[in-house]
Amino acid sequence: MLKKLLLLIAAGFFLASCAATNTETGGDVDSTSSASSSSSDGSITAGTQEDLIVNVGDRVFFEFDSSELTVDAQATLDAQAAWLSQYPDTDITIEGHCDERGTREYNLALGDKRAFAVYSYLAQAGVDTNRMDYVSWGKERPEVIGSEETAYSQNRRGVTIVTN
Amino acid sequence: MFKLLTFFIFLSIKSFAALDVTISQGQVEPTPIAITQIFGSEADTARYGNTIREIISNNLTNSGLFYTVNEDLYIQSDNLVEKVPRFEDWKLIKAQFLLSADVKKSDKGIRLRMRLYDVFNGTEIEKLQLTIPDEDLVRRVGHTVSDIVYERITGETGYFDTRIVYVSEVGPLDQRIKRLAIMDQDGHLDSHQFLTDGKNLVLTPRFAPNNQTITYMEYKNNLPRVYIYNLLTGEREIVGDFPGMTFAPRFSPDSQSIVMSFSEPNTANSEIYLMDLNTRSLNKLTDDSGIDTSPSFSPDGSKIVFNSDRGGSPQIFIMDKDGKNLKRISKGRGVYGNPVWSPRGDYIAFVKNIRPDFYIGVMDTNGDNERIVVKDFSLESPAWSPNGRYLIFYRQQRSNTDGTGGETTIHFIDITGYNERIIPTPRDGSDPAWSPLL
């Protein structure tokens, strides 16, 4: 279910790294809809993964073979840090992912660097490290299938997952 | 006989020397061998005989060094284990070598006798008898006889009585289920076995060079760590207690240590560590802010080749086993990964990427004389045959946005770039690794 939702969002949104969208609209995104507008949708429970996805943005994207946080990524993580301070009982795991190019082992290492880049940014933004974990999935769990750059750019990502 | 054998070795040396110039000169003309019917005294032994003959014929043909002369051409149809062949009859059909065997039940199990002849010189060059306790081992008898024939004629160590461990893949590409699986080197379905149930993601299995243990990576409870798996007892054990991801494991040549990457906490930077499996003592071998991974020992245990992006892009480096005398050896265009030292010590196999293509190649151990063996959209995970003359690897097809494509298959190729074939697997297959001779 969540997976489907993520796919819909990803399909409609190639460039937005800290995008918010309405769950009802799926891939057909109204660019004027902001984080606050979709929170009026009563179906989303505050402090959940869905809330994070819809109203904050659960993921950041990376350049090819890079674990540097872009300006967009930092803006998303600032919003995530604010959201996490709003829900102090929430724990998270940060997943680092890569596109399919490159060897499995190199991508495991790169995915860990990406996850850690998010982890340490959030820590510096004030999120208690006891609330956070990170893990690399290398190129093992693409978000979007396809041997092309539009898929690759969605797959080079750090994703924040609410674990409780 | 001696003359002929020398001639053959000369041929193969010549072909490898030719590699340095261009791989297109590396092909060896296959040597014709005749294999008589393998006679069985009883109904089941006759069946075993047919199976064994088929295994031997396939193995020798697949090596690229032999072809089996068509049975329909054979003039003499006798069992030539007890009887001297009429060499003229075999010369006439241009068989250079002749193998005959028979199988019989005995009180100890099943007995196979074989004789190998040099047809042109009219001499017997090998004679052997072996007994197996039960029919489960019939395929292994086929592989063992193949090894004997290969070794006797080429002068090289065989590789047929070996197994391949790999990752069996099934399901959508974004939720792939991966299981460790093992099979004979020919991929025969009768030999195929799954080792894990698919509940946890598993990756990159590798054999110990001198026992029946594998090391691999598993996401148990979503924690990616290195494990070892004892194939004789079925026991699985985590390697060390690390507060972070461990991955890219390989055994040392004595199988007593594991060299692997550990992603250190507080930096998530991957460094290469060596763990002694007996004492559990740990040695950190690299110390750099770049990614250090895919370590592989030289067969004499003195050096380690590995993948690092410390210079800005992924390249191949070499160092002493204690981390000293580190230097880059990859010299060509593109980025490199997955270096694997040949068990003979002469070459390092590698993956390289010059966008958009991937290549698998071999280079001298100082990085000279790089030669490409195979090129495709996506290639990975080269592993050596125990005699260092062949590679297995996997290909992945392009995937499409509708979720189709992305199939993975395991391939065999000789290091001259010839004689490639798919090693069949029941499902998709990746990350193959070769066992030592059993």
Characterization of this structure:
The complex is a heterodimer of chains A (164) and B (438). Helices cover 40% and strands 12% of the residues of chain A. Chain A is of the alpha+beta class. Chain A has a single domain (2-162), classed as 2-Layer Sandwich (60s Ribosomal Protein L30, Chain: A), CATH 3.30.1330. The radius of gyration of chain A is 15 Å and the shape is globular. Chain B is mostly beta strands and 438 residues long. Chain B has 2 domains: 2-154, Rossmann fold (3-Layer(aba) Sandwich); 163-434, TolB, C-terminal domain (Neuraminidase), CATH 2.120.10. Chain B is built from 4 helices and 29 strands. Chain B has helices at 2-19, 43-62, 87-92, 138-154, and strands at 31-40, 66-68, 97-106, 109-118, 123-132, 163-170, 177-184, 193-194, 202-207, 213-220, 223-230, 236-238, 246-251, 257-264, 269-276, 282-284, 292-297, 303-308, 315-320, 327-328, 335-341, 347-354, 357-364, 371-376, 379-384, 390-396, 408-414, 421-423, 428-434. The two termini of chain B are 29 Å apart. The A-B interface holds A 3, 65, 93, 100-106, 108-110, 112-113, 115-117, 119, 134-136, 140-148, 150-151 and B 172-176, 201, 203-204, 217, 222-224, 244-245, 247-248, 261, 263, 267-270, 291, 293-294, 307, 309, 313-314, 335, 337-338, 351, 353, 355, 377-378, 380-381, 396, 398-403, 405-406, 431.
